[in-house]
Amino acid sequence: MDKPTTKRIWRCAKYYFELCLAKGQSSDTVRGKRGGLKKFFLWCIERNVTYIDQIDLDLMDDYAAYLNAYRKPLDGQPLCPAQKRNLLTFVKTFVKYMHIKKLLPTNLLENIELPSKGEQIPKALYTTDEIETILEQPLLFGVKGLRDRAILETFFATGIRRGELVKLNIDDVDFNSKLVRIHGKGKKERLVPISQRGCEWLAFYIGKIRPMFAFIGSGKALFLANNGKRYVPSKLSDTASRYVKLAGFDRTGACHLYRHNTATTMLDNLLNRHVCPDLNGKWVGEITSTFKNESGEYFSKTVEMLISADFIGFDIRLKSLDKYQRSTVVQSEVFRDARDGNFYLSYLFESVIDQPLPTDNSKFDGAAKLTVRFDENNIVLVGTYWTNRAWQRGQNTAGKIELRRE
């Protein structure tokens, strides 16, 4: 590459972009720098600033004030702190390289003070149920919709960036190990796990849907646009946003939100499986007792359990749908057994029967121990209970319990 013989800003900027590419920076990174410096260059032209040696701290103070007052044309909102900091950093780094390459005698921006970028959380995180609603929308659009569903499933199953998804090749997916090779920023590669459901959608897409878009120029690209070529990153954002709106959510939606939701869901699952399971809510299931009815069959009935838990306390309420008895939990706890690593819910209860049968007691006590079992994304409570019901006559009962959250 030829070093510029002029100090004009944009000619030096083009040289700087070539340097960045030569150093191995990704095309997306250089594209971002180009957009940021173009914004600065157009602002400079309006002030008759055309040479790099005119860029000093006073000029940058004026540019920072401009960015602070700037409003985005689409929604009239100001730039966020991170955006303003990035735009100033683009110029600072550009001037630094011009000094390194001897195009400037001194680095006039060496002591520039950049604004804090702040710390923000995503504004539109979706619940798992909302994600499922979004994922249902592409099924309304035939073959293209099935391709888009596979794309969205991959986003949510892996949490990768849109720029990483468009670079995926067919042979990057290892179905046996459930791993995907990701070509990340700075030519770095990493292996990312993918869920069983994500693998199933990818297998379906590769076997049935991709051949409908592929042609000789498609190469090994995994996801193909309507023209049979690799997707452009911006088109993926348009696709993600469209299905969010079709799902009825009046919130911004783009590819990075799936990334945030993946991280949040993984954290929730990690806490559920390794710290303390979230058992809050209404649970419905069946109790099968060792007691036999008149037909000689083991007695069973439907029960409800309402669990309310927080860092302060843990409360369980039992309800028998046949209304024969009323049960009150007097003590309960969730604990993890170090011997097997499983979580268990145990509780003591007291039952009262207002109008007991002649062979029954009006009051008895019992206990239960339930295993907290994880079935994919659901939790099931399975275990046994026992009581001192009519124990004097050797008729005390025990049985099995299985509950699922509604």
Task: Describe the protein's architecture and organization.
It comes from Shewanella pneumatophori. InterPro entries: CB (IPR044068), DNA_brk_join_enz (IPR011010), Integrase-like_cat_sf (IPR013762), Integrase_catalytic (IPR002104), Integrase_recombinase_N (IPR010998), Tyrosine_recombinase_XerCD (IPR050090). Residues 7-99 form the Core-binding (CB) domain. Helix 2 packs across helix 4 (81-100), helix 6 packs antiparallel against helix 8 and helix 6 (142-158) crosses helix 10. The termini are far apart. The strands form two sheets. Strands 6-5-4-11-10-9-8-7 form an eight-stranded antiparallel sheet, with no helix packed on it. Strands 1-2-3 form a three-stranded antiparallel sheet, with no helix packed on it. It has 406 residues and is of the alpha+beta class. The longest helix has 20 residues, at 81-100. It has ten helices and eleven strands. It is elongated and about 105 Å long. Helices cover 35% and strands 23% of the residues. The protein has three domains: 9-100, Orthogonal Bundle (DNA polymerase, domain 1); 128-274, Orthogonal Bundle (hpI Integrase, Chain A); 281-405, Lipocalin (Beta Barrel).
